[in-house]
Design a protein that fits this description.
This protein is α+β, with helices and mostly antiparallel strands. 51% of the residues lie in helices and 15% in strands. The chain has 3 domains: 156 residues, Beta-Lactamase (2-Layer Sandwich); 83 residues, Orthogonal Bundle (Helix Hairpins), CATH 1.10.287; 156 residues, Heat Shock Protein 90 (2-Layer Sandwich), CATH 3.30.565. The protein contains 9 helices and 11 strands. The chain has a 5-stranded mixed β-sheet, covered by helices on one side. It has a 4-stranded antiparallel β-sheet with strand order 2-1-4-3, with helices on one face. Strands 5-7 form a two-stranded antiparallel sheet. The longest helix is centred in the N-terminal third of the chain and has 59 residues. The C terminus is likely disordered.
Length: 495
């Protein structure tokens, strides 16, 4: 396995990209942090040396001025290295003191670098070296104010300059101890940054592996769904976005599987519905051709009945297809829902009475909605056909209409027989019948309630089935009221 294949086996492309981005960001941040902190440490240490040197120079010049005042000249220091070192030791020794022996004979050590006698030179008022290390090009007894790398600070007594103290700048005073200190600090900084970088790499690798594994599973699931395998399911734990996406993919797979089953059932049911009248037509036509049945009005009436059944089925299918495509012809207008329904129920009262069904209405006028009159008549007709077909004689049909705050609530309920609770949610499914034998004695094609549901959705209404107190089925339709009823004119006052 090549390194590239190995990386792809561990990480997905998204996880690998995430890992590389995190690594690059951490490397850049660590590099910038190293150079910034290293420069800060170097500058801060130099600044510390400058301040410390200035304090020691102030102390040393004060000590030299006191010595000159006490002796009246520089003769006591001229070429006297022992006195010079003793003066430096006393003036530059740390305030905390130095360890001494029991007989107090040990002298305090000179501070490193800043207390080194070779870092200083003492000049008189004429600029002649008295003692100390001369500059790189100065010779003993030579009068030179700027011996190369040295800097000078005046020594004053009673407002008069009596000499100058030369010293090296802090940048050039570094000794081995100072460099060891700086190198140690930088080494510790490198160790810290490398540790943080390794920790970031481990974290990035774990995050990339975790994310890559989950996204790879989602990619495989969606690819399987694209190939038609809707049985795939993802494990979803937690409440993060990826878990929610996994649940959505599972829901989508279940919906697609259910849609495929419904489509297959839909095709089978349509074939069955079309086959029955076609078989009857074929049988009657063959009987007429064979002379078994005469070619009379009765035979033609039977043929016409089967053709009408086929036509109704095709029209119902066409309406449902238009509803699914959201191009159903339904021009909306303002209408009185109660008056519109009352007219159709009055026209159907005699037909209901012939089936032994008593009609009871409570439909107040003045409840206005936006509706398509011919589509609403189709909706009422399908509900009436369903009540006539599935209500035993003698029976009752009760229709009532009430107005709530923003809705017109229509209740349509009939008497026994009822519908089992587990079948209520399936009543509006296409070609669904309660009887498994698909007996056409009591019902139609099984599309009537599906059309009622589609027409209700066209009017932005909700359709809810429930058991009826009369012993049968109750439908509750909730129509939104006409928006004009919520518009209140602004009052105008003319003074």
């Amino acid at each position: 396995m090549s390194p590239r294949q190995w990386w792809r086996a561990i990480f997905s492309r998204l996880g690998l990209k995430l890992f590389i981005v995190i690594v690059l960001v951490n490397v850049l941040v660590s590099g910038a942090l190293y150079f910034t902190v290293a420069r800060s440490i170097d500058d801060s240490f130099i600044d510390y040396l400058r301040r410390s040197q200035q304090q020691r120079l102030d102390t040393l010049t004060t000590t030299l001025a006191d010595g000159y005042r006490a002796h009246g000249s520089w003769e006591w220091l001229s070429n006297n290295r022992e006195a010079w070192q003793r003066l430096l030791r006393v003036a530059l020794a740390p305030r905390s003191g130095a360890p001494r022996t029991e007989d107090n004979s040990r002298q305090p050590p000179l501070p490193p670098a800043l207390g080194d006698p070779r870092q200083f030179v003492l000049l008189d008022e004429a600029g002649t070296r008295i003692i100390g290390r001369p500059g790189p090009h100065a010779h003993e007894g030579e009068s030179r104010r700027d011996p190369g790398e040295l800097r000078y600070t005046p020594i004053m007594v009673s407002g008069q300059q009596i000499g100058s103290l030369g010293y090296r700048a802090p940048d050039g005073v570094f000794n081995s101890i100072d460099r060891v200190f700086l190198h140690r600090q930088l080494r510790n900084l490198v160790i810290i940054l490398v540790t943080l970088l390794l920790s970031a790499l481990l974290l990035a690798g774990g995050l990339a592996f975790w994310l890559g594994r989950r996204t790879r599973a989602m990619a495989l699931a969606t690819r399987a769904m694209a190939d038609g395998d809707y049985s795939v399911r993802l494990t979803s734990r937690g409440r993060d976005e990826l878990s929610r996406l996994s649940r959505d993919i599972n829901t989508l797979a279940a919906s697609l599987a259910r849609g495929r089953r419904d489509r297959q059932q839909w095709v089978a049911d349509i074939a069955h519905e079309l086959r029955t009248p076609l078989a009857v037509l074929r049988g009657e036509i063959e009987a007429i051709e064979d002379g078994v049945r005469p070619m009379d009005g009765r035979s033609l009436g039977s043929l016409h009945q089967e053709v009408s059944q086929l036509n109704r089925l095709v029209e119902d299918l066409r309406l449902l297809a238009q509803s699914d495509a959201h191009n159903l012809d339904a021009p909306m207008s303002r209408l009185d829902l109660g008056a519109h329904l009352a007219d159709q129920l009055e026209d159907s009262r005699d037909a209901l009475a012939q089936h032994g069904i008593t009609l009871q209405c409570s439909l107040p006028a003045g409840i206005m909605i936006q509706g398509a009159p011919h589509r609403l008549r189709q909706l009422w007709s399908n509900l009436l056909s369903n009540s006539r077909a599935y209500t035993d004689s003698p029976g009752r049909l009760k229709v009532s209409l009430v107005q709530t705050d923003q809705q017109a609530v229509l209740t349509w309920e009939d008497s026994a027989p009822g519908v089992p609770d587990e079948a209520l949610e399936r009543l509006t499914e296409r070609l669904f019948r309660l009887d498994s034998s698909r007996n056409r004695r009591r019902g139609g094609s099984g599309l009537g309630l599906s059309i009622v549901s589609a027409l209700a959705q066209t009017h932005h209404a909700t359709l809810t089935p429930s058991p009826s107190p009369l012993g049968g089925l109750r439908w509750t339709l909730r129509f939104p009221l006409d928006p004009q009823d919520f518009v209140r004119p602004f009052a105008t006052t003319v003074e």
